Amino acid sequence: MPQNELARPHFSRIPQIYQNSLRTWLDNGSVETFSEDELKLHRAAALAYADPRRPSIRSLHTMLCDMLILIEHRLIVPVAGDRSASECISVDRSFAPDDLDDLLGRLRASVTMEPRSEMVEIAAACRRTNCQFMEIMEMLLNRSLKNVAIEPGHQGIAGFRLDVDEVRQMTAGEDHGCHAVSELQSLIPASFRIVSGLLSGGWIATVERRHPTKRYIQKVVEPETLAKFKEEFVSLGNLASSRRTRTWSLKRQLEQRSIEPKFIVAEMPFYSRADLTDL
User: Fold this and answer.
1) Which single residue of 5, 52, 59, 68 has CA 20 to 30 Å from 89?
2) pLDDT, greater one: 70 or 134
3) Could you tell me where the DSSP H helices lie in the chain?
4) In 3-state terms, what secondary structure has residue 248?
5) Do strands 233-235 and 268-272 pair parallel, antiparallel, or not at all (unpaired)?
6) Strands of the 217-221 sheet, one edge to the other
7) DSSP 30
8) What's the domain of life for this entry (predicted)?
9) Which whole number is the average pLDDT over 222-251?
């Protein structure tokens, strides 16, 4: 590292933790030198970080992973530093305080009310609605939410309070209209063992759809698929129930007519309805 870099006035006035970061960049060859303007920016960012009265990178008060999301979507843009952030993002990347002021100002413009006891912080809203941090940021910046507050005594992003039900409603997807696997027991109807066997055996096909509110990918059955299966096949148990007879008695009648089941799942025979027209 060029020793004359350390003797420059602006470098010596930068707080020690920032000096260490700049020394690292010089030592590993990430940069060869700093211009006077770059050193001024580093010093301004460092002082803003150290001053709790300024809405700097520290007073955004958000998780490191969320900070990286803000950078990725260019809501905040580093003015220096290109390494991945590690323990302290402000050391690896410097930001213009005015840019951070602007972001917080735009977010605060979305506030519509005083906080209520049932409102939650952004991180909790993300967890409870399975939405992404950036989705909430976009809704705040677009002023799409009607219930937004800031908790007194809290600063930055950590101070925002939201209505979980409103966030859930705003981020919900379209209803896919399919049947959850758990619903098949009452729709066929059949026991859990039989439903599991029908699915694993490929007798009823499943598709993957995103849950409209919980947001995870789930295996479901399309209504047309279930309707077609029920039109083609019927279990011995359901057939006996519809005829108000015992399964063993009905099975004997079927055997006497040489009507065999098309398949058996979990010890339950399934028959083709086409074979039962004369029964």
Assistant:
1) 5
2) 134
3) 3-6, 9-12, 16-27, 36-50, 64-72, 89-92, 97-108, 122-129, 133-141, 164-171, 184-187, 192-200, 223-232, 236-242, 247-256
4) helix
5) antiparallel
6) 179-180, 217-221, 207-210
7) S
8) Bacteria
9) 97
The span from the CA of 273 to the CA of 57, in Å, is 69
Residue at token pair 């213009």: 96
Residue type, 91: V
* Cα atoms in the 13 Å half-sphere on the side-chain side of 116: 9
In terms of Cα–Cα distance, which of 265, 201, 204 is closest to 236? 265
Q: What pLDDT score was predicted for residue 253? A: 95
The DSSP bridge partners found for residue 208 are: 219
Whose tokens are 């991945």? That residue is 84
* CA–CA dist 93, 101 (Å, integer): 17
The rounded distance, in Å, linking the Cα atoms of 79 and 213 is: 39
Amino acid at 127: R
Q: Give the closest residue to 83 by CA, choosing from 10, 1, 24, 13.
A: 24
Burial of 272 (0-12, 13-18, 19+ CB in 10 A): middle
Mean pLDDT of 14-29: 54
Which one is predicted more confidently, 79 or 118?
118
Q: From CA 183, how far away is CA 204, in angstroms rounded?
A: 13
Paired strand residues for 180: 220
| Closest among 232, 238, 233 to 185, alpha carbons compared | 238
- Within 10 angstroms of residue 18's Cβ, the number of other Cβ atoms is 21
Record the tokens describing residue 63, joined without a space. Answer: 């998780």
What whole-number distance in Å separates Cα of residue 16 and Cα of residue 49? Answer: 13
Spatial CB neighbours of 179, under 8 Å, sequence gap ≥ 6: 187, 220, 221, 222, 223, 226
